[in-house]
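S.,

Sequence below, as promised.
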Amino acid sequence: MAEQFDIVIIGGGLAGATCALSIARYAPDLTIAVVEANQPSDDYHPSFDERSIALAQQSVQFLQANKIFDPQGDFAAAIKHVSVSDRGHFGKTHIDCDEFGQNALGYVVEVNPFGRSLHNQLINTSVKLFCPDTVTSLNYQVNVAQLALQSGAELTAKLVIIADGAKSPTRQLANINFTTEPYSQAAIIANIEVAGGHHNHAFERFTEHGPMALLPMSKNRYSLVWCMEPEQIKQNMALDDDAFIMALQNAFGYRAGQFVKAGVRASYPLVYGRADSLHSHRTLLIGNAGHAIHPIAGQGFNLGLRDVQVLCDLIQGEHEIGSYAFLRQYAQQRSQDINTVMTLTDSLVRLFSNSSRMLALGRSCGLFTMDLCSSLKAPLAKQLMGQVKQGKRL
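The prediction came back faster than expected:
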């Protein structure tokens, strides 16, 4: 006999685990299962790597309200100031939390300890974990979805939530197409120690080779995201630590201080990806399973969290969980926000990776004007803080 659940979530990484914990706290009477392919207690888990993520202020408020995240924890650091500049050009702008009456614009969180914290929280809830396990087939009846797992377990659910990433195999089982377009850039990720500390200051710097971001993290380190063409990735990954630090300092300058040490480096391809639909019968997508974006503005996980927030609101609403009306409302409430963020990040990549002198002048003028006028900064600051109008939320 198949084990029956109200909701089955495929994927127990950051998006899936956060989704399960949030729903369990919004609707404790629902029966929830999570199917996760990797054991988080192992040395390697693809979702819990050495990267850091930026949490917008609104995301932090949501996670705090559900007792999922403590911004005062050991693996979090506040972003109080953001500087944006265009290398070789005069334009730049600064955003400070004080300008908008906030204690922080957001927080930087280390993925590995955060992911393990989410998993430990799941263990102490009523959510049932199938881990390590994977979905081998997904079939539908009118009122339920039927899932078969690699372990031999059989499940039914009123609603299946696919949260197993941009390369989701479950999305294929649900016959939802995912269109991807690779960027001409990849990214190097590393933790960087800086002399004198970071003072909670984040930097976004655009160069002729691609954008660079330095995000303040715990223990006075920066989390580096350095985007460049694949051939340059190979060259910089092959450098020893001292040579890499020198190359980074030359590319970024001294706005953030003097870099003194680099941690383990990793590189990742960058893609623009989007599902043709956010739902099919009794099934919906959240996080990177539905939309994959460039890390230029640190919006990826925040976008997925807003998927979760809308979902939690709908679960408390009037429509039956997993019904067509429920799924349609989810897609309608998420479409504008997703379109806005994907268009914004893609446009920034293309605008600031262009060597045209006229475009460079326009970029500089825009950043310079924004720096002079607080009202022009407000839309950018609100986007950074996650204050996005959607459904019931602002």
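The first strand starts at residue 3 and ends at 10.

Coffee later?
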